[in-house]
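so im writing up the methods section and need the FAD dependent oxidoreductase record in one place, dumping it here so i stop losing it
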Amino acid sequence: MAETNIIVIGAGVLGLTSTLVLSKHANFKITVVAKHMPGDYDIEYASPWAGANYLPVGEPGTELCRYERDTWAELDRLVKNVPEAGIHHQPTVLYKRAKDASSVMSQKDPWFKNTVADFRIIPSSECPAGCEYGTAFTSVCINTAIYLPWLLGQCVKNGVVFKRSILSHISDAAALHHSGTPASITINCTGLSAGKLGGVMDPTVFPGRGQIVLVRNEPGVMGGLSGTDDAADEITYVMQRAVGGGTILGGCLQKDVWESQPDPNLAVRIMKRCVEFYPELTNGKGIEALSVIRHGVGLRPMRRDGLRVEKEKIEGNWVVHCYGHAGQGYQSSYGSVAEVERLVESIVGERARL
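--- predicted struct ---
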């Protein structure tokens, strides 16, 4: 089969996962072009700031639900067979407060109960005060500082070339292919930058600011709470990263907020809430017993119309979009990229018939 030159724009979790899956096709020759690469920490680069974990939120029947469902098997395989990827299984406990509205993640009978392992309902008698029930199951938590470089390394092993570049227009990407021959397909995994990239300029893209505290304490559990009394845009969760990556305490979801610096008052509220609901963090000693590694802020790449995984022609060239996944990039990655792969194959097949 004839070779196909492909450019992937973006080296976040979706760009790297797209590249890895496509690089397994011997006839695809891939160059990744990105402003930021694994190892960078920048407010424009969302993936390193993520927890990251698998706690589905997609409503049944939606694309997000399908992509989340189709991602679990590969994450589970990596835990079992590829420890160097930096992912581990984690016992998970989610509490539903009586005063909060129900969501996919906090339902007693969520669609993912038969996807994850060991799902069970926790009765109110075993929950913190104010909670009507909880759910417990086994999920995964990802050490992004290990996983992103691992993805990059797997791509390089498959012959992918990486280049740093800042693009003003998506059509400029094709000429950057390492072969010297322009790429015929571009994969757009630009996250928030899709809102300002020429040729795309998606007006529905916006940031969902998140703030976390990374600590050395190990609760031995991953979990979350259905709401808080502090503010409508604040949330409570803990997740212990694999391979000594520390524990993430969160958080918030502040829509259309671009502020890159941590708010110290919010940081205190985050720590207090996490210690209250997960006392294993400090063995009941309060937030003074937390050993803080750093405070962090990330901007989730959100989209008012929901995630976008589709193909279109821009200035006569095929582009496959894969962005707008908000805080679900990791947990929907392999499902989303399976659709990217299908779209690329459809383009290649159509060209072969011409």
